[in-house]
Amino acid sequence: MDSVLRISGVSKRFGGFAALSDVSIEIAPGERFGLIGPNGSGKTTLINCVSGLLHNDTGSIVFDGEEVSALPAYQRTRRGIARSFQIPRPFATMSVLENLIVPLQYVAHLGEAEARKEALGVLQRSGLADKADTPSNRLSQVELRKLELARAMAARPRLLISDEAMAGLSGSEVDEVLKIMFDLNAAGITIIMIEHIMHAVMRFSQRVVCLDAGRIICEGTPASIVQNGDVQRAYLGA
Amino acid sequence: MKYWTGAAVLLIAAFAASLSDVNEYFFYAAFVVLQFIVLATAWNILGGYAGYVNFGTAAFFGLGAYTAVLLFKALSAPLAVQIAGAAAMGGLLGFGAGMLTLRLRGIFFAIATVALIFILETVMINWRYLGGATGLQLLRPDVAAPFDSYTRMLFFVMALEAVAAVSVARYIQTSWIGRGLRAIRDTEEAAEASGVPTLRLKLVACTVSGALMGAAGAPMPMYLSFIEPASSFNLLYSVNTLAGAIIGGTAHWAGPLIGALALASLQQIVTVTISNEVNVLVVGVLLVAFVVGAPDGILGLFKRWIRF
Amino acid sequence: MIFSFDLLAEALLFGVLLGCFYAAVSIGLSVSFGLLDVPNVAHPAVMVLGSYFTYVLAGYGFDPIVAGVVLMPAFFLLGMLIYRFYYESFERRGTEAGVRGLAFFFGLAFIIEVGLILAFGVDQRSVQAAYIGTSLALGEYRIPYRMLVAFGVALLLTFSLSLYLSKTFIGRAIKAVAQDEPALRLMGANPVRIKQWAFGIATGASALAGAMLIIVGPVEPALDRLYIGRTFCVVVLAGLGSMTGTLGAGLILGVAESIVLMFFGASWAPAVAFGLLLVVLGIRPQGLFGR
């Protein structure tokens, strides 16, 4: 079966520091994939390498059968990889709606009017429809996180990577965001979820991989991961 | 359509004025203001829309002036060709500087543009054919009919350039290019992740900006019948342009227009009543004051005031 | 162009002295921009301000170097003030190295420059001292004493600052803030006050650099423009965050400029620093020794 994303032997160093060492992951189309690991384990670095904000030193990243390691980030987005940012980075001088028009114009190449229409649709699915004309620098934390997701959705991705989209959210807010992601997956989008909120990862993922100090230390179903000794040690310390 | 009607009206008025009996000083002052408008508007395409500070306006301006001189001296080129050539060189310089440094952080681009001023000035100082350090006198052909003097003709030429510059800025701002540039200015990484080809857009903005600045410099040699490195690459072009755009407001094409007008008028008053040096001090102080206290410029203050 | 190995040797010798001088005037920028990420294009202007203050104090009988040292505490405070202002106006609101921060420092540089013109006029100013105007005869070469003095002070300044940053507690805190501010915050230290202190030190060093500047040659208000090229060239060539790299980079620039001066003349020399800067930005923007 062809994988939608195949990461093979990817390493990334910053000066003397090895952020990622020989990471290999294969993700099936339509899969719900969880990525966990303590702070500093390299999760965001891996995401940055996949989305193109960083370039991996070694190894290959194959998306839908195409090697993308050398492509700049915007071209990867245009091929179907979208990501949200851990710390929300809205286009602060634009309204919520305009934030979504950017990817719609630059990825889907829609005209102004069509982009507006589709953007509203995305906002409705994200629960932000009533904030369409609000300046994005006036949103609350949870609204900002929804905007991050909505903007990634507007890029019409086939693979969506969410980087700690639920950090700091309350129980019901977590459920809201989780529902959005389940709906997206039901529509056929492969999703990689990076999270610290364990119950969310466990409910959502079909498969989970745990990173620690730049290496994969465990891979399997949510149930098996939780019981794995290495994972427990990584989170709680030896 | 309102815009184009307004632009046409202004141009017709400018043309009529240049043929009228109005005092020669008016054309001199207006030329300076119009040149300022072109420079500030051009600067804003990269600085205001994309957020990359070009401190080398003087380099592009001087390059435009010297390109015009080269074309005139070597090929007896008419003014239109001089301007086109100057724009082409300015665009080329913008593209080159962009390719070199727009991949890096904003401050490296800014410092690189300062470097351009000194390097180009040094080249011109050592280029005998174009006059070297002491400069070059130019023998102008008779001024083209229907104009009576170069001052009047170049005033009109500059008016044309101003309308062109503002029209280009307006087009870029309101198009999807403008939105992409704004996304880059707001958060470049998120823009790239949203499919915006950041480097390409920055290069476009830089090239267009450079071309317009080069075009602004082209009429100067004909205006003065003279060119020399020190005044062509005067750092004041850089400071005034930056100040004009920021004071006026960088988010909209009307900002540099307002800023240039306001600043040029203020400078005339200060230079005449106090001194030239205090004039530069005033520009510096206003720049810092606006950057700190009114970052959205006069336009921003106006918007806030209207809301009340 | 007359080429001879004698001339080359002389150019090299002069270049080494000049290079150390350039390293010393750049070390403040190495801290404020290299470590603290502040787009401080006003650094050379502040240094020239130091030169003029040295000139004033020299008029009262102070030896220029002593004047420079005396000015250091005052400039230290000035630096802390500037950083505080910059932080409150820009960094805190999250728009630091953007358009506004840069425009602020350009504006500041211009205000200083014009202020100096208004106070002192555009003419060049210089100072007198026993070591200015005389030379040391070394074999066939004559080395101006003022260059040796600048060389000595430069080495002293560079090494003391390097030692300060690596051996003292505050020094290491400064390096820590440059590398990982959030971690520092978590450890209970206040990064803003540390950066403020660091910026103050950088500016204090500029006072002494300014004194050396006027010792090495006459100064005029517009001199800061040329030194934007030289200081940024050194800092970028060294690589951001590398103190010792500053010395190496300074030497490279000094020798390059000296050779161009010797064989191509004074009309080409100003472009060397700026040209080298562009080359470095194009080929290896992280510099030779950077983090």
Plain-language structure description:
- The complex is a heterotrimer of chains A (238), B (308) and C (291).
- Chain A is an alpha/beta fold and 238 residues long.
- Chain A has one domain (5-96, 157-236): P-loop containing nucleotide triphosphate hydrolases (Rossmann fold), CATH 3.40.50.
- In chain A, 39% of the residues lie in helices and 25% in strands.
- Chain A is built from nine helices and ten strands.
- Chain A has helices at residues 43-51, 73-79, 96-106, 112-126, 141-154, 171-186, 198-204, 222-227, 229-236; strands at residues 5-14, 17-27, 32-36, 58-63, 66-67, 81-83, 159-163, 190-194, 207-212, 215-220.
- With 308 residues, chain B is an all-alpha fold.
- Chain B has a domain at 31-231.
- Chain B is built from 15 helices and two strands.
- Chain B has a two-stranded antiparallel sheet with strand order 1-2.
- In chain B, α4 (79-101) packs antiparallel against α9 (198-217), α6 crosses α7 and α12 (235-248) packs across α13.
- With 291 residues, chain C is mainly α.
- Chain C has a domain at 21-221.
- Chain C contains eleven helices and two strands; from the N terminus they run ααααββααααααα.
- Chain C has helices at residues 5-35, 43-59, 64-89, 99-120, 145-167, 169-179, 181-186, 191-216, 223-238, 243-264, 269-283; strands at 135-138, 141-144.
- In chain C, β1 and β2 (141-144) form a beta hairpin.
- In chain C, α5 (145-167) crosses α6 and α5 (145-167) packs antiparallel against α8 (191-216).
- The longest helix of chain C is centred in the N-terminal third of the chain and has 31 residues, at 5-35.
- Chains in contact: A-B, B-C.
- The interface between B and C is large, with 45 and 37 residues.
Task: Give descriptors for this structure.
heterotrimer, B: 308 residues, two-stranded antiparallel ribbon, C: two-stranded antiparallel ribbon
Task: Give the arrangement of secondary structure elements.
The complex is a heterotrimer of chains A (238), B (308) and C (291).
Chain A (H helix, E strand, L loop, with lengths): L4 E10 L2 E11 L4 E5 L6 H9 L6 E6 L2 E2 L5 H7 L1 E3 L12 H11 L5 H15 L14 H14 L4 E5 L7 H16 L3 E5 L3 H7 L2 E6 L2 E6 L1 H6 L1 H8 L2
Parallel strand pairs in A: 3-8, 3-9, 6-7, 7-8
Antiparallel strand pairs in A: 1-2, 1-4, 4-5, 9-10
Helix pairs in contact in A: 3-4, 3-5, 4-5
Chain B lengths: L1 H18 L4 H24 L9 H19 L3 H23 L4 H20 L10 E2 L12 H25 L1 H11 L1 H6 L4 H20 L1 H6 L1 E2 L1 H4 L2 H14 L5 H20 L2 H18 L3 H11 L1
Chain C lengths: L4 H31 L7 H17 L4 H26 L9 H22 L14 E4 L2 E4 H23 L1 H11 L1 H6 L4 H26 L6 H16 L4 H22 L4 H15 L8
Antiparallel strand pairs in C: 1-2
Helix pairs in contact in C: 1-5, 1-8, 1-9, 1-10, 2-3, 2-4, 2-8, 2-9, 3-8, 5-6, 5-8, 5-10, 6-8, 9-10, 9-11, 10-11
